[in-house]
# Entry
Amino acid sequence: MGTDDDTVDLFCGWPNPALLPSGALAEAFAAAMASPTVRAPALQYGPDEGYQPLREHIAQWLTSFYQPCAPIPADRICITGGASQNLACVLQVFTDPVYTRNVWMVAPTYHLACRIFDDAGFAGRLKAVPQDTSGVDLRFLRQSLLDAEEKARAEHNCDVIYKPPRPWAKIYKHIIYATPTFSNPSTVTMPRSNREGLVQLAREFDALIVCDDVYDFLQWSPEPTTPLTPENKAHLPRLVDIDRSLDGGPKDEWGNVLSNGSFSKLIGPGARTGWAEGTAKLAYGLSQTGSSRSGGAPSQLSAAMIDQLFPSGWFQRYLDEVLRPQYAERYRRLMSAIREHLVPLGVTLPFSSSEIAGGYFVWAQLPAPLRASDLDLLDQQVNVARGDLFRVQGDADTRTNTFDGYVRLCFAWESEENLTEGVRRLAEVVRNGLK
Ligand SMILES: Cc1ncc(COP(=O)(O)O)c(C=O)c1O
# Structure
């Protein structure tokens, strides 16, 4: 990844190698292989729902972090191959390429999800839903869902045609895709009332909300002098927690939200291991994806290795004492450089909060009339992601789906020392662009 050696790369959304716990993983792997009761199942085909000890540890860990209305039982958890791989499985089991009308994507969106939806037959039916600091535009989404239903009626799209009825699966009419906390790329965190409104809308229109809850654990205070309290608990419920308790709980045994979690940003993307949470029925249905029925949940060996990190408390300590402080430090460095070099040029941070920060990115708005596509990044040997990369692919609506006035800066990949230099170079590019 990256460009050439002298380029400062604020584009790449990967963790810096220094943030990967290779020593602990080497020990975990050795421990797993030394134990006959671990190594045999770890190296075998596994259960469809995934490595059982890890399901249990994840359930306890999520209960402690999110503090939902009741402890999370392991049967709500399914081990996955990470958020991306699991999104494909969700679409295989719970959508039909015709009966499922649209995929509604909170925009700007995680761009690599678009191909996964395309692969499942939704090309041309991905729709951007705008958001701002008060969250997703629910009024816009409601009207769009009403329009989509009217179109489906006119086209007599009333029955599931391509997927045979299966007791473990339900076909939803709509998919809503969101990253509700520290979104990639916008960094917007949806407020609680907005989360509740979205769950209500999903229930009303028979939609499954797929949430990439992949950045939730990386949170800190923007100001080191006023630490986040508490630092190791979520400050908002996930949408899946809301669906579990709102108005007496889910509408039916399937529910309307699936939380897509991942160890990519916590252990290492190469582990290709994550988890999904939903109602027990939804989690079980997911585990019945054809590819999991043939051989068990993905990443069995990785799952068994990661599981070794839980009983001793190592994983929690690593999050609290290493990962969060290191990311917080990187974030503050980048922000301080932005305040020094970019803000005086008219660059603004439309979604940054003074109370809580997190995730991997900073989303910055360029001073008008400058467009990201005009920036001569090569000239200053700096790379950032131009805003239009995060358009919902195939949606031509320029009111909701144009981001050329923005850039995304990542503080996870570059060496910490280079973050300030990268911003200084970007400021030079912006200054030249404004001339
Ligand atoms: C919103 C979002 N979802 C999913 C992923 C990828 O997750 P995984 O590595 O678990 O497939 C990323 C990685 O950048 C992301 O930002």
Notes: Residues 8-20+323-434 form a domain with the Aspartate Aminotransferase, domain 1 fold (CATH 3.90.1150.10). The radius of gyration is 22 Å. Residues 13, 82-84, 110, 179, 184, 212, 214, 262, 264, 269, 274 surround pyridoxal-5'-phosphate (CB under 6 Å).
